[in-house]
């Protein structure tokens, strides 16, 4: 039975590790199964070994591999006059990182990851294998630099994340220790959805009241942003006008990650802007949902094709910064929508980061005008 356990554990670990560690566990699993088959040929305890190994590896993921994030009790430094602007986003490492993805799975699924950890990590690893490196941090650094430039003197802009380093708890710990009292937290989320709720839960556990801060302000998600909706509208119309062909448009929402009502409101806003500006433009628009409603997208795409369109545009407007997860979803949609001679295009506005910066700058400026 021990050989079976070693085999199944090695096999599971080869699925979630990458690089040389993956190869080591593949070799070990191969040796174990060869030894089991050629010598003992005993299959009586194979199912028990599978169950024990499955539970064991998932426990490793939940309790052993993940990062433990905490806010240490720090001594505030000399008070600074500058306002500290802390950006908080999902976060994603450039290359596959088992510990950080284990941490994300823990926060998103809790103890359910005892049953899904291996599958979830294997899925994340495949995203990286298929799509290459993530540019998430590059995008957020772009927002940080541009916002810092716009705000100018009197402000310090710091980047932090929920699921990759630096974690926002660690950033806040550093901020308090350096003596910042005026803090504005800017969550980079489209809606008050799953990740935003996790952020609020983690933030409330910090108990920052004892540090006598002047008042921490937390900005709302972006779903109300007219500016961001206009950027999507402009980019969509630019593409449609460039080809000058009968077009269809899928404005796809994120059902699992977003607040559904807010998600729909933002997409309806983009649709309204398009229809208002181009009343004579014949564009068929659908607003399907992604993830577990993928059939809804395929159905919407097929309905648009019935209009005889030449070009179909796919847009994912309710995600501020694309992750490997959303990129994979888009890739799979385009594959499933591969029908006939109709051409498909994914639209991600070039000026989206600029629009996010402008929105943050406007909100922070208005906040300070009202406050003082």
From TrEMBL:
Keywords: Lyase, Membrane, Transmembrane, Transmembrane helix
Pfam families xref list: Ferrochelatase (PF00762)
InterPro entries: Ferrochelatase (IPR001015)
Highest taxon above the source species: Bacteria
Segments passing through the bilayer: 6-33, 45-65
GO MF assignments: ferrochelatase activity
GO biological process: heme biosynthetic process
Protein name: Protoheme ferro-lyase (Ferrochelatase)
């Amino acid at each position: 039975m021990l050989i079976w356990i070693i085999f199944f554990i090695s096999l599971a670990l080869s699925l979630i590790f990458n690089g040389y560690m993956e190869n080591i566990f593949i070799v070990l699993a191969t040796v174990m199964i060869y030894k089991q088959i050629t010598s003992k040929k005993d299959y009586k305890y194979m199912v028990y070994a599978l169950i024990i190994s499955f539970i064991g590896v998932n426990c490793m993921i939940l309790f052993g591999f993940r990062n433990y994030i905490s806010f240490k009790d720090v001594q505030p430094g000399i008070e600074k006059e500058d306002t500290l602007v802390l950006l908080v986003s999902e976060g994603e490492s450039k290359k596959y990182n088992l510990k950080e993805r284990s941490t994300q799975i823990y926060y998103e699924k809790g103890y359910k990851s005892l049953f899904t950890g291996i599958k979830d990590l294997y899925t994340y690893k495949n995203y990286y294998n298929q799509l290459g490196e993530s540019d998430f941090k590059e995008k957020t650094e772009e927002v940080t630099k541009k916002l810092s430039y716009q705000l100018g003197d009197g402000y310090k802009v710091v980047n932090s994340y929920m699921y990759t380093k630096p974690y926002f708890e660690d950033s806040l710990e550093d901020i308090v220790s350096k003596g910042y009292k005026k803090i504005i937290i800017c969550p980079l989320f489209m809606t008050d959805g799953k990740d935003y709720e996790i952020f609020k839960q983690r933030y409330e556990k910090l108990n920052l009241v004892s540090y006598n801060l002047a008042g921490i302000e937390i900005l709302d998600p972006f779903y109300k942003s007219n500016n961001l909706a206009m950027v999507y509208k402009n980019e969509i119309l630019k593409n449609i006008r460039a080809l000058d062909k009968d077009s269809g448009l899928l404005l796809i929402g994120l059902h699992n990650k977003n607040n559904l009502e807010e998600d729909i409101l933002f997409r309806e806003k983009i649709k309204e802007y398009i229809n208002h500006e181009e009343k004579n433009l014949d564009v068929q628009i659908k607003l399907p949902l992604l993830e577990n409603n993928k059939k809804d997208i395929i159905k919407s795409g097929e309905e648009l094709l019935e209009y005889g369109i030449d070009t179909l545009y796919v847009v994912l407007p309710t995600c501020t910064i694309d992750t490997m997860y959303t990129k994979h979803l888009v890739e799979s949609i385009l594959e499933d929508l591969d029908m006939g001679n109709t051409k498909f295009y994914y639209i991600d506005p070039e000026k989206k980061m600029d629009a996010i910066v402008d929105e943050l700058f406007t909100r922070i400026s208005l906040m300070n005008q009202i406050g003082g």
